[in-house]
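Narrative of accomplishments. A recurring question from our advisory board has been how the design workflow behaves on a single, concrete structure rather than in aggregate. To address it, we present the structure tokens for one chain from the evaluation set, followed by the sequence designed for it. No filtering or post-editing was applied between the two.
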């Protein structure tokens, strides 16, 4: 599978100021909660939110050194600015964006 994260970061025409890659598995009981929290907390912001199923995309998981799910990687202007592991307070997801 193509590396959609790299595609978003490397393509300035489609890249938004912020990118959040959310690494998850279907079996993870917190992953859906994190995804919904991020979507709701950041509604209205100009941001790419990219869900990455690590069971389907193990190479991407390895490339980005993701060891646990849920993990959220936050990029600004193509640079990694934060790595959030596990279920966190919704404010944590917003603080890097606002």
């Amino acid at each position: 599978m193509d590396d959609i994260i790299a595609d978003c970061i490397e393509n300035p025409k489609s890249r938004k100021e912020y990118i959040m890659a959310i690494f998850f598995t279907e079996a993870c009981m917190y992953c859906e909660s994190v995804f919904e929290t991020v979507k709701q907390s950041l509604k209205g912001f100009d941001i790419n939110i990219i869900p990455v199923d690590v069971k389907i995309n193990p190479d991407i998981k390895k490339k980005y050194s993701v060891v646990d799910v849920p993990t959220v990687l936050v990029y600004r202007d193509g640079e990694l600015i934060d790595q959030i592991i596990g279920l966190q307070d919704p404010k944590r997801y917003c603080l890097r964006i606002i």
